[in-house]
Amino acid sequence: MSVSSAGAQSSDAAAVTRVWQSFFSKDTPIGQKEKLLQNGTTTMKPALQAFAADPRVGQASATVQKVTFPDASDADVTYSISLNGTVMMGGMAGKAVKQNGGWLVSDSTLCGLLQLAAAQPGGSSGVIPGCS
Predict the structure, then answer these.
(1) Which 8-state DSSP code applies to residue 74?
(2) pTM for the complete prediction?
(3) Order of strands across the sheet with 86-99?
């Protein structure tokens, strides 16, 4: 790997981490989260609204442990989700995608989390809007 590509990957890893932390921050309004999610203003808008309606989201935060790049427009993200500072799900695997020069949380990552939430006791069953 050349120094320039190592520097670019380091910069991209920092950008992915910032997007991830902003997307999962309770302080980020849904209108901003739409801009941080792949297809967040279109097909994923209903899924994002379902995500935001979950009361646990207001207590959640994400910590990125590792970002790797299988190619220039995709990132594999290893992260944990904490509720009120306590890690509830560690070693989670997610994805980020680069679109229009910026990194976004992948729609498949949000769909996976919504499916996990639906499988919990008291979770909703059925089709998650925007997720196939």
Answers:
(1) E
(2) 0.86
(3) 60-71, 74-83, 86-99, 102-105
Angle (CA) 74 29 44, round 5°: 45
Q: For residue 21, list its beta bridge partners.
A: none
Q: What is the CATH number of the domain that holds 60?
A: 3.10.450.50
Instruction: Supply the range of the domain harboring residue 74.
Output: 3-115
Encode pLDDT of 96-116 as tens digits.
999 999 999 999 999 998 888
Number of domains in the chain: 1
Q: Is residue 128 part of a domain?
A: no
Q: In the beta sheet, which residues pair with residue 62?
A: 81
For residue range 70-99, list pLDDT tens digits in order: 999 999 999 999 988 899 889 999 999 999
